[in-house]
């Protein structure tokens, strides 16, 4: 299997690490080496959301998260977990649930990185469903010893709008019986296909004429909501949206529906003993989290809305001793917190400040 090449301006500093999960699924993992060749930096694992890929963190047209982490003294690692649009099998019918990501992809990537970083600190910055899956890995105790975690958009307590919830539960079932996935790239659909009606629906009332933008920004894959603040994107990023976000699989909807209904990250596979290591309800195990946690969200997130603020409220009430904070970025939606043209100025500073703080806390603990 060949991953679609990572789109970046990092030259030969991107080191691809062959990585196949223990269930046989081929994934993508790469390390970005600092310009000075340093090998003593804390490592940061970065996780994308569903249908996205590591590409969203290396946009050459903006100052991206990888650039900022490198300049701040970190060693970025990028995982393309099995929901990545860089993995060619996601255009087909390969099926998985978020349980697989939590059980295989994230813990095994963490183990592989640990083999390479020789006792150095490892922190995680996770986005959207990558963050939800990480919460399930953490609740299962499968990724112990992380130095700090940033979760963007959503983490343990997913919550959508009533409109999205209704469409996901009723319309989603209808679509699931007819479609394997919903594409983002209108060029792959054409004017007359079983997907055309969805593109027609998401164009209603849209200010932007780009169908690939409409399906993300005006009515996310027909389930309602919006994935970014339009004015926050660079024009080049706007025109690359179909490369950055791939097809949405319909067969993932039952798991998504179960966790959204419960407003908590849930294991889906109850009858398969392979998944017994995962807790049924991740929130019930959150008291075991013993690392600093930063929940981040744009003030105008119109997909996950106030999920992370809710998560902060729930965690601080249930576990008052937990080191958890909530940071809201004014004027940002969901995806633009990472792909926005000014995200380095408005968002990434919060992330770096938090990671720096985690390092100093750990350094103090080691000295004591
Ligand atoms: Zn647009």
Q: What would you say this structure looks like, in words?
A:
Belongs to the GMC oxidoreductase family. The longest helix has 20 residues, at 98-117. Helix 1 links the parallel strand 4 (43-47) and strand 5. Helix 2 (98-117) crosses helix 3 (128-139) and helix 4 packs antiparallel against helix 9. Strands 1, 2, 3, 4, 5, 6, 7, 10 and 11 form a nine-stranded mixed sheet that branches. Strands 8-9 form a two-stranded antiparallel ribbon. It has a domain at 11-160 and 263-367: Rossmann fold, CATH 3.40.50. The chain is an alpha/beta fold and 368 residues long. It has 13 helices and eleven strands. 35% of the residues lie in helices and 14% in strands. The protein binds zinc ion. Zinc ion binds at residues 208, 210, 213, 217, 230, 238.
Structural class: alpha/beta
The CATH class of the domain at 11-160 and 263-367 turns out to be Alpha Beta
- How far do the termini sit from each other? 48 Å
Question: What is the radius of gyration computed over CA atoms, rounded to a whole number of angstroms?
Answer: 19 Å
CATH architecture of the domain at 11-160 and 263-367: 3-Layer(aba) Sandwich
Q: Which regions have little confidence, pLDDT < 50, spanning 5+ residues?
A: none
CATH level-4 homologous superfamily of the domain at 11-160 and 263-367:
Alpha/Beta hydrolase fold, catalytic domain
**Shape category:** globular
**Number of DSSP strands?**
11
The CATH topology of the domain at 11-160 and 263-367 turns out to be: Rossmann fold
Indicate the percent of residues in helices. Answer: 25-40%
Q: Describe the main β-sheet briefly.
A: 9 strands, mixed
How confident is the prediction overall: mean pLDDT?
A: 91
InterPro entries: AB_hydrolase_1, AB_hydrolase_fold, Cholesterol_Oxidase
Protein name: Putative esterase/lipase
Organism: Streptomyces himastatinicus ATCC 53653
Cofactor: FAD
